[in-house]
Amino acid sequence: GYAAYLELTEGGRRRVAIAGDSAGAGLSISIALEAARRGDAMPAAVGLVCPYVDVTIAGIEMRQECTREPLLTPELMQDFGSTYAADADRTDPRLSPIFGADEHFAAFPTVVMDSASDDPLLTDAQRLHVRFDAAGVSCDAVEYEDLWHDFHLFGSLFAPARRATSD
Q1: Sheet harboring 110-116: ordered strands across?
Q2: Are the beta carbons of 20 and 46 closer than 8 angstroms?
Q3: 48 - beta bridge partners?
Q4: Do 125 and 29 touch, CB atoms closer than 8 A?
Q5: Which DSSP state fits 44?
Q6: Which stretch of DSSP H or E encloses residue 18?
Q7: DSSP letter string over 57-106?
Q8: I need a surface site. Which of 54, 61, 104, 139 has the fewest CB within 10 A?
Q9: Torsion sign over Cα 91, 89, 79, 58
Q10: Nearest to 93 by CA among 142, 31, 39
Q11: H or E segment at 139?
């Protein structure tokens, strides 16, 4: 992901925004953290939907009460984390960007972040928002009530998702 970002920024693109949902949001944060760590051009903006930013799954273990979630379970997230991280250090910011350095978060541009109250990963979004606030980063965060992980994917079928994707 970072190599692709460099291709864009070093290839003459002046304003590159990066965005992703779930693990893609984690990848977006990791790319921006790596750009800050290396002193490279930062993205113009970062967009996040229901971010998955901690493969240690510490946050999801705090959210066992998410009974309305149709997809993600603590067991499934543990499997995802094990597959993704293998034997690597799960607190490495390239895998779990929530553990990035304060000074690298401080270099971030404006962030737009959506989360959902019934998402087991809600605590990832909340912890990330705390990191942005502490770093003085402008973060436009919206938590949608009574909705689940990546509800945005149902935009054409579901009125709350249409509203979220049109805002």
Answers
A1: 17-21, 45-49, 110-116, 139-144
A2: no
A3: 20, 113
A4: no
A5: S
A6: strand 17-21
A7: -HHHHTTTT-TT-SS--HHHHHHHHHHHHTTS-TTSTTT-GGG--HHHHT
A8: 61
A9: negative
A10: 31
A11: strand 139-144
Residue showing tokens 């999801």? 60
More confident residue, 64 or 42: 42
Dig out the tokens for 82 from the structure.
Answer: 């094990």
The whole-angstrom distance between residue 143's C-alpha and the CA centroid of its chain comes to 13
Catalytic residues: 22, 119, 149
Provide the percentage of residues in the chain whose pLDDT is more than 90.
57
The per-residue pLDDT for 42 is 96
Angle at alpha carbon of residue 120, lines to 119 and 126, rounded to 5° = 80
Distance (Å, whole) CA 157 – CA 75: 29
| pLDDT above 90: residue 98 | yes
Helix axes 23-38, 2-10, angle to 10 degrees: 60
For the chain, percent of residues with pLDDT exceeding 70: 93
Phi, psi of 17 (to 5 degrees): -100, 145
State how far the Cα of 43 lies from the Cα of 31, in Å rounded to an integer. Answer: 9
What is the C-alpha end-to-end distance of the chain, expressed in Å?
27
Q: Hey, is 135 helix, strand or coil?
A: helix
Q: Kindly give the pairing relationship between strand 139-144 and strand 110-116.
A: parallel
